[in-house]
Specification:
about 70% helix; single chain; transmembrane; CrcB-like protein-domain-containing protein; about 350 residues
Length: about 350
């Protein structure tokens, strides 16, 4: 099975996240990011190829809105004396919406299948971030904020960010499934969109992303590091993750290889961008904004916690535990190699040295 939904109205989380005994784990993991298909017993006319222009086009604005939501939530929850790290809100919100999307997979398929992928892979995948989580943990280990605390407290801070994120993400995912299951019977399904409306939606989605290029160049420079650079790189990051998932997730029964590769690659790239932003001789203001956009946009959308949590829920027993441990360990080892060697070798500073201010 996959994370598919039978037609019954009342389902528990296990019915959605557990496997059908007649299907292997590889198909389970491969179907999470894909549009609803024959697995959900849809008629052929309502099934969209994973690489259909309608599916890919809707990923464009979905990834943009996901980035904006992440940056907005982080800005809202970052303040002096905050009680919890800002990414906790981001991951919990994205996983909750992911749970809603998983519970609505069949209704999405009966209405317009590409909307399912836009919501789960596009919006939730871009809202949540595995690479940002990993870098924050590593920053805690090395105390990059130069806080007055001992090594044991550095460890506790990184350990706290690890387990709180995992618990929040998995709980929010299941809570989203439950909430959607509770309210869904009170809403009737709308009629599917017409052909003209579907093509219009596809055209507008492409046009929306195309607008990020002039927005990047024509808005004032101080907007670039805040949002416009991230918007420019959002869809390429989401598309890379989606293609890796489509091509690699079906290969193994024990681990979603595509998501693992996307999360590992994005974490390594984000670590590298942080190193470049800490060079003793600061890079230019435009280069600094570009690096920030690549980190927030490309790496943030290339990596995902929401799909990661859904895959943990789809696996069982030690497969879920081993996938979690392998993914976390790989991320930290990559950052140790990239960021740790640069910090401790004295080549770069642990704090950002490049400036976003215009001269």
């Amino acid at each position: 099975m996959s994370l598919d939904l039978p037609s019954q109205q009342h389902l528990d989380v296990g019915s959605i996240l557990a496997r059908h005994q007649t299907t292997d784990d590889a198909n389970t993991l491969a179907s999470i990011d894909r549009p609803p298909s024959e697995v959900e017993e849809l008629p052929p006319a309502k099934i969209y190829h994973p690489l259909s222009i309608h599916v890919l086009a809707l990923l464009m604005p979905a990834s943009m809105f996901g980035v904006l939501a992440r940056l907005g939530l982080q800005a809202l929850t970052t303040y002096d004396g905050q009680s919890i790290f800002p990414l906790a809100y981001v991951q919990a919100t994205g996983c909750f919406i992911m749970g809603v999307g998983l519970r609505m997979k069949v209704p999405f398929g009966n209405f317009y299948g590409p909307l399912y992928t836009a919501l789960t892979t596009g919006f939730c995948g871009s809202l949540t971030t595995f690479s940002g989580w990993q870098v924050n943990i590593f920053d805690s280990w090395v105390n990059s904020g130069q806080f007055f605390r001992g090594g044991l407290r550095d460890f506790m801070d990184g350990f706290t960010q690890t387990w709180v994120t995992l618990v929040l993400s998995l709980a929010s995912l299941k809570f989203g499934v439950y909430v959607c299951g509770a309210v869904q019977p009170y809403f009737s399904a709308p009629p599917p969109p017409s052909k003209n409306l579907r093509y219009t939606l596809t055209f507008l989605a492409i046009l929306t992303y195309a607008a990020t290029l002039p927005v990047y160049f024509f808005l004032p420079g101080n907007f670039r590091h805040q949002a416009t650079a991230a918007l420019l790189f959002s869809f390429p990051g989401t598309l890379t993750r989606y293609l890796l998932s489509i091509n690699l997730n079906p290969r193994l029964k024990t681990i979603p290889l595509g998501t693992f590769m996307a999360n590992s690659l994005g974490t390594a790239l984000l670590g590298f961008f942080h190193v470049v932003q800490g060079f003793p001789s600061p890079v230019s203001q435009n280069a600094c904004s570009l690096l920030q956009g690549l980190g927030d946009g490309y790496c943030g959308c290339l990596t995902t916690i929401s799909t990661f949590a859904a895959e943990i829920g789809a696996l069982k027993g030690w497969k879920a535990v081993s996938y979690t441990i392998i993914s976390w360990t790989a991320g930290q080892l990559l950052l140790l190699l990239i960021m740790g060697s640069s910090f401790w070798g004295g080549h770069v500073k642990e704090q950002m040295t490049c400036s976003f201010q215009t001269s």
